Amino acid sequence: MSxxxxxxxxxxxxxxxxxxSGTTATKSAGSIASKKAxxxxxxxSIKQLCIVLAVICFVLYAxxxxxxxxxxxxxxxxxxxxxxxxxxxxxxxxxxxxxxGYLIIPNDLYRPLSMVMFAIEVQFFxxxxxxxHLFNILTxxxxxxxxxxxxxxxxxxxxxxxxxxxxxxxxxHPIHTExxxxxxxxxxxxxxxxxxxxxxxxxxxxRDGKILQLILGVFIFFLALISKETVIAFAAIIPxxxxxxxxxxxxxxxxxxxxxxxxxxxxxVIRSYVLNLYNANxxxxxxxxxxxxxxxxxxxxxxxxxxxxxxxxxxxxxxxMFIPYPLLCNYSFNAIxxxxxxxxxxxxxxxxxxxxxxxxxxxxxxxRKDPWAFAIIFYLATLFLFSNLPFLMGAELAERFAFFCxxxxxxxxxxxxxxxxxxxxxxxxxxxxxxKVLMVLAPLVLLFxxxxxxxxxxxxxxxxxxxxxxxxxxNDCRLHHYVATSITEELxxxxxxxxxxxxxxxxxxxxxxxxxxIYPEYSEAYIEIGRIYDRSHRWDSAxxxxxxxxxxxxxxxxxxxxxxxxxxSTGKYQQAIxxxxxxxxxNPNFKYAYYNLGLSYKQINRPDSSVYYFEKMLQFEPGYVxxxxxxxxxxxxxxLYDSAxxxFKRVxxxxxxxxxxxxxxxxxxxxxxxYPQAIEQFKKTISINPNYLSAYSNLGRAYYFSGxxxxxxxxxxxxxxxxxxxxxxxxxxxLTYQKMxxxxxxxQYEARAKQIYSDxxxx
Length: 763
Fold this sequence. Notes:
Blueprint: H1 24-61, H2 73-78, H3 81-84, H4 90-95, H5 112-125, H6 129-154, H7 160-172, H8 177-181, H9 186-208, H10 211-225, H11 234-245, H12 250-277, H13 303-322, H14 344-366, H15 371-384, H16 406-422, H17 435-458, H18 462-472, H19 477-491, H20 498-518, H21 523-535, H22 539-552, H23 557-569, H24 573-586, H25 591-603, H26 607-620, H27 625-637, H28 641-654, H29 659-671, H30 675-688, H31 693-705, H32 709-722, H33 730-740, H34 743-762
Helix pairs in contact: 1-6, 1-7, 6-7, 6-9, 7-16, 7-17, 9-10, 10-12, 11-12, 11-15, 13-14, 14-15, 15-16, 18-19, 19-20, 19-21, 20-21, 21-22, 21-23, 22-23, 23-24, 23-25, 24-25, 25-26, 26-27, 27-28, 28-29, 29-30, 29-31, 30-31, 31-32, 32-33, 33-34
């Protein structure tokens, strides 16, 4: 038998391992340390880049802090009754249609989140334009940073420089001025912020797989939905992202897709429930004046004109992405003239979109993770909702509609920088500082920044905005009308000089007639001209233009109300009642028609009907002082003093420093023979307004009836000293002196009273 070999290890001398340059162990340790250092540098760099983006955004939009309330800011913040309640108004905001706190319409929306934010701001800062603009800027900063984080994750954190360049171009792009400078567009900003925040959270879920990340991402996506419906386009973007561009875990991608579909379904159910509850879920009519493409429904515009003009509008969006000038707050009838098959604008747009669609599709099928393809698909998917192709929008074109889709263009611009300027993959953050990048990026940023800052100043007020834009778009019918209304509503009320007021009226009418030159059937222009003539008491002209408006738009409740108001002002009360009733028939929620009906019935001495319609007005606006006052006067005139006192005190509660309100309460007490209370109210009236003659008269009588004759004489004398021509209390002075036993003075004032009476009879 052969011997088995000895398998025991041969002992060797112990050796101490010395580090040898280039060994595997050393490389591994070095690479780990290098990786940690790189991560620290990268994290620090991202933090720095976020600060840079935030500072740039703030500097660009700081001049909006000088601006006031414009466009729809009045509806959502300045005069919104729910928002004005602060935190107490939030339950109503969440449970009602979007505009319910300002007006009642049959085709409302459900966008409560921005309104909730406004209510919180009002609770702590009051109704303040500076603060509201500041929060718009801060929200925009959040949008830009969320976009930066998303793009950094999109490139697997390997191209932070590229993500920064895209976010920077987005930050300075002038087309975003409408969204940031217009407080109302907080809904768009919040929608964008929460939309991209949800994408960032979903990326974390794809990486970590934590169920809380999925739940949080879906919840944040729901917040985007209740900000504005625009984010619903992500129903196409999210599957594209997580099934193709980040296809690491299909199960998690399915969970994300299912989660956002569930969020959309829940949102639609809540939206339908709330709108149906308030009868506000009717289809929104698209007016020809706002979107001339609606003319195709009434055969004013042919199918060919509609089709070609739709593509011209799409071309306009593309042009504004690269040449953001001129920027306009409005694109109504004739701002974008109709096109036909021979129009070069149509063919340029068709060719441009044909090319980018072909480019995106071919690159996508060649490489499912191609970023160029994603950027173009993102642009097309988010623009499609506003393209007028699936359905007509309330406006042909609006710069706020481009807020989301501009992300795709900014990403394309960054990719172009990488390919043709940097000429290598932008993996190193420091590449941003390279001279070849700065030579192109810096001039672009400076140009766009200058345009943005300049455009912000246009948004100072409605008048500055409309006046600036109408010069750039003189064929826009609506803009001429808006210039006129801004003069009427902003400039006219604060002007003291009557000559300047008349000049303002002439300017307004001139603008409105330009509007009618563009579109002769524009009833809103006739309504506004009628309102101007009504204000200047030129009743014949007011009636002419009001009738013209009613003829052109018999279904316009404002036109019917204004014609009724002209008849009310000229004493044609029965005719006024007809048109006020018609206005209510057309819009049962038009509160001012109820008030006007109350005034009309008051004039024809039908107090019960008058009170009924004033009460109807108060159902819409419980604090409307004029209606409460009129009800109180109706009861007072019928000597129903208990009811009169109730309503006059309601007025006083709303306006405690209104001398009329205080005097009226005193008058009730005087007639109820509650003289001490009456005296207290009249003294308060005089303290508010020392020149209030009626209060002196009432106070003197209260003193007389309560036996305080010296005080009565002193008060009547004060009244006469303020108005030597007054004679209404001469008889009371005679009676007072008689009560005091001063018969000489009594006879003297009695003689004056007789003379006044005699003079009155002769007249």
